[in-house]
Design a protein that fits this description.
The chain is mainly β and 186 residues long. It is 10% helix and 40% strand.
Length: 186
């Protein structure tokens, strides 16, 4: 019975450790950033989701619209193609426009600890900023007890190749958004 509070605290740890938004600030050049309670910040690149259809009864399900990019993201696609978290930066290196798309990223460790894993998401958007696809991605995977596979302090290496199916009707090159969900250290 003494272990119950400890077990509860350990199980809630990851939930409580995630950053919660505090406020949004508009910069002098019009870009909007979100300040979080863990002293981090991020550009707001996605407009709040709105339903695409309305219903008259509460029992009828609503269709939710696909996420849409903000004007600042459409004006500066570089904001989309690079993400950072816990001292790790993942940036889009190249996109081979075949079917399926082949995406190559660079992973850069700017922190002080050895990185053994970087996991996140890659999203494709059309020229108007409407999301076409979203897929989980493993940007870096190292083997424990094989130090040569670790991403060390100051190192920059190519990530694993990521393939994404080409959305139907997608003719031109899509905008690519990178998100880092988790960084694992050794």
């Amino acid at each position: 019975m003494k272990a119950l509070p400890l077990l509860l605290a350990l199980s809630l740890g990851p939930v409580l450790a995630q950053a919660a938004p505090l406020t949004q600030v508009t910069l002098a050049d019009g870009r909007v950033v979100q300040l979080n309670d863990d002293f981090s910040w991020e550009y707001l690149l996605i407009k709040p989701a709105q339903s695409s259809t309305t219903t008259t009864q509460t029992t009828t399900p609503r269709a939710v619209a696909a996420p849409v990019l903000t004007e600042q993201a459409l004006a500066n696609p570089k904001l989309l193609s690079e993400a950072s978290r816990d001292g790790v930066v993942v940036s889009l290196d190249s996109l081979v426009a075949e079917d399926p798309y082949r995406l190559h990223f660079m992973v850069h460790n700017t922190g002080t600890r050895n990185v053994v894993g970087v996991r996140g998401y890659v999203s494709l958007f059309d020229g108007q900023g409407v999301q076409l696809a979203r897929q989980e991605a493993r940007f870096w995977v190292a083997e424990n007890r094989l130090p040569e596979t670790y991403l060390r302090k100051g190192e920059k290496r190519p990530s694993l190749e990521i393939e994404m199916a080409r959305p139907a009707g997608q003719g031109d090159q899509p905008l690519v958004r990178v998100e880092i969900e988790e960084v694992l250290f050794r």
